[in-house]
């Protein structure tokens, strides 16, 4: 993020904000449900298309793990809805596992 222009950072923040708001709406779903996995697929694609960094499935799952292991990430994500970080962590791992199998 540090190497991005102000405009690029604002665009990235907007993308994340929209994604996390959408995902917060379904955080009570089962992380391996079709609805959750379709949303996580959109998240994975958005991350890889928008941030100038390619996330492998393994690094994407690790990012999800960091969402629950790092209190700063958890607090920032859970501001969209209590339990969102936990949901994302599980759903991102499930997504990576499914995609690796396919």
How is this structure best summarized?
The chain is mostly helical and 102 residues long. The chain has helices at residues 6-25, 34-50, 57-69, 71-78, 84-101. It is 75% helix and 0% strand.
What this model shows, in words?
With 102 residues, this protein is an all-alpha fold. It contains 5 helices and no strands. The chain has a domain at 56-102. The chain has helices at residues 6-25, 34-50, 57-69, 71-78, 84-101. α3 (57-69) crosses α4 and α3 packs antiparallel against α5 (84-101). The radius of gyration is 13 Å and the shape is globular.
SSE blueprint and pairings:
Layout: H1 6-25, H2 34-50, H3 57-69, H4 71-78, H5 84-101
Descriptive labels:
102 residues; mainly alpha; 0% strand
């Amino acid at each position: 993020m540090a190497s991005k222009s102000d405009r690029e950072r604002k665009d990235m923040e907007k993308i994340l904000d929209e994604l996390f708001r959408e995902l917060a709406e379904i955080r009570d779903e089962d992380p391996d449900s079709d609805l959750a996995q379709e949303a996580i697929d959109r998240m994975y694609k958005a991350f890889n298309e928008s941030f100038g960094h390619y996330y492998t499935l393994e690094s994407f799952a690790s990012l999800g793990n960091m969402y629950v292991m790092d209190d700063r990430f958890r607090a920032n994500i859970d501001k969209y809805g209590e339990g969102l970080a936990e949901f994302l962590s599980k759903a991102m791992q499930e997504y990576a596992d499914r995609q690796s199998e396919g």
